[in-house]
Structure formats: structure tokens, C-alpha cells
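Checklist before submission:
- one chain only
- standard amino acids only
- sequence pasted in full

Submission:
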Amino acid sequence: MDTGNRKNSYGVLSMYRIMIVDDEPLILAGVTSLVNWEEHQCKIVRKVSNGRQALAQMETLKPDIVITDIKMPAMDGISFMKASIENGYTSSFILLTNLEEFSLVKEALRLGAVDYLIKLELDEMALIGALERAKERCSLSHRKMLAMEDGEVTADERIQNYFRHILICNPDAHPDEGLSAMIRERYPGLLLMLIHFNYGFEGFSQEFSREDQKKVMNFAENIIHEMVKGFFDRSCLLRKEQNGFILVLSLEGMNDYKEQVEAMSIKFRKVIKTYFEVPVTITVSRPVREADEIQDLLYQAMSDMNDAYCENPDRIVFYSEGCKEHFGRRSFNINFLKKELTGIIRQNDRKGFSAIMNQIIELFVQCKPSRSQAVNGCSNLYYFITFLLEEREDQSFPYILDVAGQLNRLTDLSAVIAWLEWFRDQVAEALEAYKESRKDKYIELALEYIREHYKEKITLNQMSSLLNISQGHLSSIFKKQTGKNFSDYVTEIKIEKAKELIETYQYMMYEISDMLGFDTQYYFSAVFKKITGYTPKEYENMTIRKNCS
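Returned file contents:
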């Protein structure tokens, strides 16, 4: 769709008005200078530092597109966006976020944000792509407004807009009397279905991007829209984020809705699997007679989805009280293990790390967290652990750019557990590899220290303290790397230096003993003979004879 030629009522090209909101001056400056705005038919009308300032200027500036940070003082991006919607502003929102804020991103997308951009990954192409999507949304909104002004919005379109608003954007919305009458007439009984696309982890292409996902969802939306007509006379299909749909079905004239729903669901799954090679999970609410209860239907279908996620994603799940009870479990927290994880990772303890990860996996098995809990828990765990790994600049670890997106595509809880096991093994291997590389580094540092400080008394305890590792660990890796005990190696270095000093014929034996840190001349002489087979004096005489011959 061409979104670059918006014209005003006089047929003149008009600019998209942009507001940028961020409390970091560097981010404001960076976003401002990232693209040539005029080339993309855009004009920055204001830059502000928090949501409260931005909201106060929405009425005056009427921006078409708002680019806003999520976390800000005074008023954050989510609150700003909610307040804008409540006040009737129709701006398209693009969110700026950090890696650890994906739970907030999800809330923003639920409210209708066009896109989100990760600050650390922000570049010209990413910003231009988000702008084009926002401009497309603006154009669509503009056409709808013109249609409403011309009286072209049908009753079904008004009902669909209301369902979208109350189920996705604003749960506190209420229809006017005329719209309520339309809904009662066309939906005298209704139920709700959730259709979730399971972009599986195993065997699914790593190159499958968000753009690919959007294309699949666009095609699927058209297919589902046409297929449902063969089973129900009236329905409303709504996009739910980028991995599913909400389908509101009118039960007008229906005697056995369950049979129709099952037949339609089987056909949905078969066609989507055939066309896109993506399995879907379908959950169904109870039927009700009044549209006022539609939010309860969404809750029911979501609780069904959690039951399918934990048990069996391949079946059609109808709502039951058991689903509600399961969905109500909210206590799931793995933060209490983070302190122990920190110590173990910094010690490169592969076995200890695997043991803690096994505890976490067992928690997932026993507690059966909801999809959002599992995704948030795994995302937080991933970012926490990779942050610790990044402290050592480990480039070998397979970092994931969009871990939350990957986790959201997992089919069910068993797939999440498989992901956790994969992640456990990847980190364990990284710890082992780093530990081996550190062994070489420790020994290199120890040998360098011995070469530079051979005149001093050097002990294993002293060396382990300098390297900040245990005596036992240093003793073990030193023997493995050099083939010698630490004390024997130090002694041999000292004796080699003693031989060099003796061959200068400038020092008395007691002076050499003192210079090399031996306690007494007698001990020096005994050690020298043990290693060389000669006393220091015998070695000196031998070198003199050798030089004279």
C-alpha cells in the first residue's frame, strides 16, 4: 500500500506530524537525526521529555505519529498511550524500549501500538519500516473517518469497531443506545473463540522474521474470514497481536453450536496447517445471551488457552470451571535463584549451573505457569544470564535478538521446557569453554608473576590470593598445564637463576641465597644439590674448570 501521498482537502501533499517523547536527551537527538524526515513526508512538530508534557500538547499539536519511550518519569509511555486513547486522540504510536521491557511492550501492542523499536538495535531501516507502518495506520484511520462523515460505515462495521475496542483497546468502553440495539439484533446469543498460531521452536526456521509472521497472519485472516461464512451467518474476526485471532460468533438461529464449532475448528486447523505449516490451538468460551458479557468470554477463552498450553495444544478446548481454576494460579517466581546463579556463573561452575537449571525446569513442570508467566520467566532468566556472560565479552555464546518473540511462538509448556533444556546446555558449554580458556590465562599470569618475582618468597597461597581463585583449583590446573607442582616449579626457576648468578663469579653463596629468598644458605645448598646433583660450590668449580679448558 502506498502511504507516501497523503493529500489535504485542497489536493496538496500534507506532512505526517511527528511527536518524539523520551527522557534521555541523547535518544531524542539520535532519533531526530536518524532519518531525513521530509523525504518520508514527515515533520517533527515537538520533542518532549515525558508523557505528561506530551499529553498536555496532544490537543494543540494533533500529531499523526507519536514515537515514545516506554519508561519515563512523571508519566510513562503506557500511561500516556492509555490517556491519549481515552481522550479520543487517534495518533499511531511507536514504542522505544530496552531489552528487559517486553512485558510492557506486550501491553502497548495490546493497546494498539503500531510497532516497537529496541533502542540498542535502532537504525535507519528499522525506524523507516516502523514509520511506514504508522503512516499506513494513519491513512486507514483517515479513510474510516471520511467514510463515517459520509455515512458509509455499516452496522456490522460499527459492531466490529466496538468489539475491537472493548476486547483489545479499552475494556471500559460502552456502546451507545443505538449500537446496543444493533448488537442485540445481530448477536442475540454469542460465543468467542481464540485461534492461536503455534510458531514452534523445534524445526522452525530461525530466519522467520516478524515481517514473515505478519504476512502469514494477513493471509490467514482472509482465509478464516471466508471459511467461517460456511458455518455461521454472522461473525466478527479481530487480530490479536501477531500470533492469533479473536472470533466472535453470533448464535442466531443455532440449535447445536458445539457441533458447528468443532467442524469449523477442524477445518481451520487442517487448512492453516496445510497452507502455512503452522499448527493452531483453538479455545472456545461458553455461549451467552448478552454482548455485555463479552469480556467474560475473552477471559474464559484465555483460561482455555492456558489449559491447552499446559496440557495439549492439539485439541479444541471448551471452557470449564477447571480451566478457570488453573488460569487463576498466578504465583510463579524464580527470582529467588538469581543470587545463587550469579555466584555459580562467575565461578564457571558447569555442574552447579545445570543443577539450578534443573530446579527451574522442575518448577515449570510442577507449577504449570501460564503462557505469559512462562514467556516472562524465561525472558528474564535469559537476559539475566546473558548479562552475566556479557561481562566477560564472550562472543561464542549464541545470543538471540528476539527471545520473547521466539518464546511466544512455542507451541506449549513442553516446548518451553525443551527450550529451557536447550538453553541450559548452551550456557553450560559456554561456562566450560570459558573455564578452560581461563585456566590458560591463570597459568600464564602465574608464570609471568614467578618470572618477575623469583627473588621473593612465592607460595601457592599467595599466588591463589593474587589470582582470586582457590588454592586447590590453582594447584590442579597448574599441574595439568605444566606437568609440575607449583612449589617445585618455583624452586626450579630459582635454581636456574642461581646457576646464572654463580656463573657471574660476583657473589658469595650466602648472597645468592638471600637474593633468591631462601631462608638459610644451608637450605639453599640442599635444594640446589637435590635439583642439579651438585652443591653450589661444586657447581661453581665445575664451571670454572669448564671455562679454563
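Reviewer check: The beta strands are 16-21, 42-48, 65-69, 92-97, 115-118, 190-197, 235-240, 244-250, 280-284, 316-318.
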